[in-house]
């Protein structure tokens, strides 16, 4: 069995009296596309928010490459080369598409407040490199032609692509995609699937939360089913589709 | 795109160089010095509000801290005004840090309330700490600045100097905006969650820009004290904080040039209005100076109603419209 890049062990999260995650265990193999599916409110996005440090866990551990990363701040998680997208798209609407991706190069560049204000951008070697790297990420996501457009003016499909391009700029080893196909039409969803597979080939491990079962079953190496904050089942797509518990709780007949 | 901003700097420098040949009246030159100081404060506030998206209704306090530092250190302790200016900026930065760490955990209205409260407290200290600040009667006899052997004792010399500082402040701000730090700040403005997920240390960045913004205001305050040689708590009250926010908003928050336009306009507008009242008096209409505020408020209302993005956006739209018009005429001429 391949080495796990991410392990969630006995993860619990309570929001007040509401139990969002209840001793959840998930293992993600390096180089795989691992999906997390489950009904709305099952705690899927909470899993991502816990991994990336946006919310604090109640108990349990998150291991990344055998290192305990539970409780780290969000920006530290990014420094560990874990990137994510958001279910409710969170591009920076006032900035251009290119600038959005340039923000993604933050952890890969270094000038602080003082040097940045003293040196004009055209004398900064770093600035040129950031721009070039960002262009490269845009071309992977197929957005090069929109580089100078305001991100807020793009249609949803392009915004979802942009979030992925921006996440790629972090040079992630682990990429968390939160419903990347939500709100997309069938053609856009197909292209999104292609893009995700292309990213997998770049040696990036992907965790996918998604409701589009065709997409999930099509591209996943492994599927985890979560219900009421607990792991219900886990296995490869064909096993999951045949699992009686899963059909009862989620897939239906 | 970047270089156009820097050409703007040169244009301002040229305009500044020519103004004293057009404006002979010392009174108006003095107004333009105050305009420069407002520009400097508005620049810092714009970095905080327009770029990082964090409001401050306490900037007059930072402006005042700079002014009082200069006044107390030069008059009471006999320090050089330059060292006093630096010390004032450092002191203001430390105070901004102490205020910023808890306050910047708040968002929106709550942050506005916290900074408003801070501004009010500082103003009360200026009035009440009579032993240190001279209380309501203030501090007089603040020495002039001497820049490389040139005594800045005339309105004209101070005019050049203050605008040079504005251009320097603009230069630094432009550099910062077009850097990874500037993009990080704008990212915080749009979505803190997304910014932090990309590695931007959002709480640290917010505090740092708050401190930098306060330092801009402090330097402006020190220059103010050195220019008019006398200060009292009056100009550093909450109304001035509000006016500074209005300058940035009227000009256009999302762009540093917008803040400049807003600061210039709102600094010289009252002068135009008083000229207006002279005119009305001349033609026999009783015009009270109270009406100034009415017209002033009306202009603000109209701008905010019809140009929520501020004057900068309005100018951009106007340019675009005229470009379209010219293109249409060209098309017609050729067809």
Task: State the gist of this model.
By secondary structure, chain A is of the alpha/beta class. Helix content of chain A is 38%, strand content 25%. Chain A has helices at residues 44-51, 74-79, 97-104, 113-118, 125-141, 156-168, 186-201, 213-219, 237-242, 244-251, and strands at 4-15, 18-29, 33-37, 59-64, 67-68, 82-84, 174-178, 205-209, 222-227, 230-235.
What does this structure look like?
The complex is a heterodimer of chains A (253) and B (335). Chain A is built from 10 helices and 10 strands. By secondary structure, chain A is α/β, with parallel strands linked by helices. Chain A has 2 domains: 1-81 and 172-253, P-loop containing nucleotide triphosphate hydrolases (Rossmann fold), CATH 3.40.50; 90-171, Rossmann fold (3-Layer(aba) Sandwich), CATH 3.40.50.300. Chain A has a 6-stranded mixed beta sheet with strand order 6-7-8-3-9-10, sandwiched between helices. A 4-stranded antiparallel beta sheet of chain A has the order 2-1-4-5, with helices on one face. In chain A, a hairpin with a 2-residue loop joins strand 1 and strand 2. Chain A is globular. With 335 residues, chain B is mostly helical. Chain B has one domain (2-334): ABC transporter involved in vitamin B12 uptake, BtuC (Orthogonal Bundle), CATH 1.10.3470. Chain B has helices at 2-22, 26-51, 59-76, 81-103, 108-128, 130-133, 155-177, 180-190, 192-197, 202-228, 238-251, 256-282, 290-306, 310-334, and strands at 139-140, 146-147, 150-151, 230-231. In chain B, strands 1-4 form a two-stranded antiparallel ribbon. In chain B, a hairpin with a 2-residue loop joins strand 2 (146-147) and strand 3 (150-151). The longest helix of chain B has 27 residues, at 202-228. The radius of gyration of chain B is 21 Å and the shape is globular. The mean pLDDT of chain B is 91.
């Amino acid at each position: 069995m391949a080495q796990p890049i991410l392990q969630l062990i006995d993860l619990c999260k309570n929001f007040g009296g509401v139990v969002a995650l209840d001793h959840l265990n998930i293992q993600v193999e390096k180089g795989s596309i691992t999906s997390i599916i489950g009904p709305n409110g099952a705690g899927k996005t909470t899993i991502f928010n816990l991994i990336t440090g946006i919310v604090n866990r109640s108990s349990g551990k998150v291991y990344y490459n055998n290192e305990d990363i539970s409780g780290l701040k969000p920006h530290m998680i990014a420094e560990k080369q874990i990137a994510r997208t958001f279910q409710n798209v969170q591009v920076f609407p006032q900035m251009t598409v290119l600038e959005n991706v340039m923000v993604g190069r933050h952890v890969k560049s270094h000038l602080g407040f003082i040097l940045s204000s003293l040196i004009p951008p055209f004398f900064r070697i770093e600035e040129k490199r950031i721009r070039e790297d960002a262009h490269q990420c845009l071309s992977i996501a197929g957005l090069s032609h929109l580089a100078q457009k305001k991100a807020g003016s793009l249609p949803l499909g392009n915004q979802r692509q942009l979030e992925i391009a921006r996440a790629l700029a972090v040079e992630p080893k682990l990429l968390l995609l939160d419903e990347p196909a939500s709100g997309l039409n069938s053609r856009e969803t197909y292209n999104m699937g292609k893009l995700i597979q292309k990213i997998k080939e770049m040696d990036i491990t992907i965790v996918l939360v998604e409701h589009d079962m065709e997409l999930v079953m099509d591209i996943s190496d492994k599927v985890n089913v979560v219900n009421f904050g607990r792991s219900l089942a886990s296995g490869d797509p064909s096993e999951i589709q045949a699992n009686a518990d899963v059909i009862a709780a989620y897939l239906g007949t | 795109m970047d270089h156009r901003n820097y050409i703007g700097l040169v244009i301002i420098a040229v305009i500044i160089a020519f103004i004293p040949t057009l404006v002979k009246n010392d009174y108006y030159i003095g107004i333009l010095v105050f305009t420069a100081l407002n520009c400097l404060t508005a620049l810092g506030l714009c970095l905080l509000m327009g770029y990082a998206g964090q409001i401050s209704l306490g900037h007059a306090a930072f402006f005042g801290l700079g002014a009082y530092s200069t006044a107390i250190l030069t008059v009471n302790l006999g320090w050089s005004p330059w060292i006093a200016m630096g010390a004032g900026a450092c002191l203001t930065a430390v105070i901004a840090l102490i205020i910023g760490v808890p306050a910047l955990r708040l968002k929106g209205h709550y942050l506005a309330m916290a900074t408003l409260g801070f501004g009010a407290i500082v103003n009360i200290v200026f009035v009440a700490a009579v032993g240190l600040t001279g209380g309501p009667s203030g501090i007089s006899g603040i020495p002039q600045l001497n820049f490389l052997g040139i005594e800045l004792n005339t309105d004209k010399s101070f005019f050049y100097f203050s605008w040079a500082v504005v251009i320097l402040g603009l230069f630094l701000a432009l550099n910062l905006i077009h850097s990874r730090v500037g993009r990080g700040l704008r990212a915080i403005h749009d979505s803190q969650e997304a910014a932090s997920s990309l590695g931007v240390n959002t709480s640290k960045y917010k505090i740092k820009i708050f401190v930098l913004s306060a330092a801009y205001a402090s330097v402006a305050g020190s220059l103010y004290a050195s220019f008019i040689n006398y200060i009292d708590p009056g100009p550093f009250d909450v109304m001035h904080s509000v006016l500074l926010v209005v300058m940035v908003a009227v000009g256009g928050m999302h762009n540093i040039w917008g803040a400049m336009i807003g600061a210039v306009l709102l600094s010289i507008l009252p002068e135009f209005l008083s000229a207006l009242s002279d005119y009305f008096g001349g033609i026999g209409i009783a015009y009270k100076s109270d009406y100034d505020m009415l017209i002033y408020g009306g202009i603000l209302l109209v701008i905010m109603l019809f140009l929520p993005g501020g004057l900068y956006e309005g100018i951009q739209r106007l340019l675009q419209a005229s470009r379209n018009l010219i293109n249409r005429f060209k098309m017609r001429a050729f067809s």
